[in-house]
Amino acid sequence: MPSLARKGGLAALLLLAACAVPPESPEAGGAIAPASAPAPRLGLTDATSRLPGSVAGFVRGQSLPARPPATGQEVAYATPASRQRAAAVVKLAPLGEALVDGPSSAQATAAFQAELADAARDRARRMHEVRRFNLPATGAPALACAALEGTFGRQPVEALVCAGGVGGNLVRLRVSMPKVSPSLADAPAFASGIVAALRAR
Fold this sequence. Notes:
This protein is of the alpha+beta class. The chain contains four helices and eight strands.
């Protein structure tokens, strides 16, 4: 479904988590670099290929070019098909040597604020920020993240938005799911798994 990576489809994916996402690539291999080591500098093709086929219960789906004028790649993820699902999208934009790893660069800060604003822009949902934190939780941080909660219609929902620099690529990530107990997925574990795959040597 190519529309999943476009504005309307992406909103449906993240808000309703209702579209099937077929498995695509095998899980990324290679040893994980120590958390304190800088990530290898990666071109967009290499970075995209490192995104795992499955991580923290999410299965990789379609990968499509970012919609112009943006550059980069957008990769969809979702938990296995069921009545309620968690869904995610990972966006990679190559900035090369100019991008400092971690969540503190000007580019990462701007991307994080843009993701927060976009998460709150849809009038169909009412989201509020619960807390902010960096991921991964141990070692050198890569992503600034915010946990959000709210409603979509009468359905309580929760979300995670993150942004940061990893290996010369600006990484933006969003996870959304119905809020139920027990939770449908571990969103911070998913984000940390994406970072680990990009940092692998």
